Each structure stands twice: as C-alpha cells, then as structure tokens.
Amino acid sequence: MKKLILAFLLAAAPVLGMAAGGNVQLDDANIDLTDKESLQRGAKLFMNYCLSCHSAKYQRYNRMARDLDMTEDEVKQNLMFTTDKIGDTMNIAMDPEDAAAWFGAAPPDLSVITRARGVDWVYTYLRGFEPDESRPFGVNNKVFPDVGMPHVLWKLQKDQAVEKFDSDMRDLTAFMAYVGEPIAVERKRIGTYVLIFIAIFFVLSYLLKKEYWKDVPKH
After folding, report:
1. Would you put residue 89 in left (φ > 0), alpha (ψ -120 to 50) or beta?
2. How is the cofactor bound (predicted)?
3. Which of 9, 40, 41, 103 could form a disulfide with 148 if both were Cys (CB 3.0 to 4.6 A apart)?
4. Rounded to whole angstroms, how far apart are CA atoms 140 and 116?
C-alpha cells in the first residue's frame, strides 16, 4: 500500500507543478533566505522595479533594515522613495482608481504573494514574459496569460545575460519570500530546538514511566 501511495505522489508531482502554473512547468526558485546579500539585492530590485505600482503594506522599512543587516541610513538613502519615515510600511502613492483605469485592475499588494502562489510560481512568472502584439502593452506571460501588467523588467532582461537575469529574479523572489514571512528563518531555528526538546522529553518520560511501573504487579 505504501509503495502504491509513493508511486502515485511521484507520478502526480509534475502534474501538480504544471497546474499551479497554468499548464506551465514551474522552475525551481532555489532561494536561500539565510543569504543576506541575496536578500539585499532583491530588496534593491523590489524598490526600483516593483514598489512604484505594488505595495508591501505589511512590511516596515526599519524591520527590513534590522533583518537584512542594513543600517537605517543605508535604507533611507538607497531604498526609500515613497516616504522619509523609517518606521513606515511599504506603501505606494498611486491611487487605486487611477491604477484600475490604466491597467484594468489595481496592482495587488505583494506582501504575501509567495505564500499565496509559491516561490516557484513567482520566479517563473518574473521570467515568463514574452512578446504578444495583441496585448495592450505588447507582452503576455506564459504563467499568467492575459495579465494586465507591463514587462517592467524588459530593459534589465535585454541588457543582461540570461544567467545574470535569472540570478536577479532569484534574488527578487527571495526578497518577496522574506517579506511574506520575515520570521521564517527564526521559526525554523526555534523549531529545531523544539523537536530536540520533545525528543529528550519523550525519552525522560519513558524512563520515568518504567521507573513508576516497575513494581506494579503484572496480571
């Protein structure tokens, strides 16, 4: 029975991956949330290419500075374009009604996009734009057909080698994953200690049980 279940899961994995991406095989994002330099590069890309239209309203600049080993002055000078208050959240100045008129729908907040879609989906989406003259902005996306978003990364993609662009999109995806759960690395670290504690507690409980019950007559 176990072999049948395992075989089913292995067979279904590619299908599930394509279903999440609209019949497109998703690429492995392979992000590392412990790589602070990658997250810093991703933050720079997010502020320069995403924050003009997309907010990240559940993330604060000072929290980002602390988590990514940056000083508040570095963040103020290089990554803050919509506010001068380090304690503010990452909001945009664009009016939602104007955005809906320009793009057909207001651009969504990206605070939890990687939790909603998955990091592989986001990574593949960012690299999935292709020319399509039938669309208003002249591009479409293989992961999200008929999306209303223009290809804001086109110049970055045009001016770089494929490997460098893919690396940049991995950094950007990693930053969005961090924004979606800033405590993820700490949660996993604490979880390891919790599992160790449970294992030790189980052993001690078992030994204590044996000690209590050793003199109880067996029937």
Report:
1. beta
2. Binds 1 heme c group covalently per subunit.
3. 103
4. 21
Q: Is 18 annotated as a binding residue?
A: no
73 vs 82: CA distance, rounded Å: 15
The verdict on residue 71 lying in a domain is: yes
pLDDT class of 219 with cuts at 50, 70, 90 = low
Instruction: Give the pTM.
Output: 0.81
The total number of structural domains in the chain stands at 1
Work out the average pLDDT over 18-42: 85
Name residues whose C-beta falls within 8 Å of residue 168's C-beta, 6 or more positions apart in sequence: 41, 45, 156, 160
State yes or no: 53 annotated in a binding site: yes
From 118, 62, 123, select the one nearest 90 (Cα to Cα).
62
Is residue 151 marked as binding? no
Structure tokens at 134: 């039938």
- Length of the chain counted residue by residue: 219
User: What span, in angstroms and rounded, lies between the C-alpha atoms of 150 and 135?
Assistant: 10
Range of the domain at 61: 23-182
pLDDT digits (tens, 9 = 90+) for 60-101: 999 999 999 999 999 999 999 877 899 999 998 888 888 888
Determine, yes or no, domain membership for 49.
Answer: yes
Report the relative pairing of strands 139-141 and 129-131 from DSSP bridges.
antiparallel
Cα(125)–Cα(113) distance, rounded to whole angstroms?
12
Tell whether residue 50 is among the known ligand binding residues.
yes
The answer to whether 76 touches 86, Cβ cutoff 8 Å, is yes
Q: Is residue 122 part of a domain?
A: yes
CATH number for the domain spanning 127: value is 1.10.760.10
